[in-house]
Model the fold of this input.
Amino acid sequence: MGLVGSTLRTGNYQVLWGAAFLGWNVKWIRGYRTTAELRQALERGEIDMTTFGASTDIEYLLRTGKFAVVSQSGTVKGGKQVPRSILGGAPIISDLVKDNIKDPLAQKAFAYGEYVSQVGMWLALPSRTPDRIVVTYVNAFEATLNDPQYRVEFAKIDPDSPVTSKADLEELVRELAKVSPETLDYIQAELKRQGFGSSN
Done:
């Protein structure tokens, strides 16, 4: 399982849960610099699997006829998790693993991972930022989302990716803020059990 960088990223939670609850035999290969390097590593046979979020990466690999989508995290629309159309009939990972998670702490860790998987690139203002600056950022965010030209340009990069609302983002941040130290410790222990921190 190849991944960019040396830490778990949002899309990698699928593989974490697949190994934890479905018996996937995973060896983590860390340190790739970009998703382009991951694509090349797949094509060279250097790695067997990885995760991608952008439709363009997925479409490119599917066109080769050499790769298949094992699972997907899905996307949230109208408060409900639904499959991404680009991934065809690939099952949502939560549908595959949820009945296998019996431990309450594991269930909390999985729920946290579900929220984290909705986060892509992000920007946050520091605490105690003056209200007038916060309002300026929020207004700019909403104006960007409502700009038809932005939507056209964004669709060229990732046509299958949903555009979220301020309310949805606020709810997501509220849920992520509820995570307990015990939940994070569980995730770290599971990563260690899978050999994530060992040298490759």
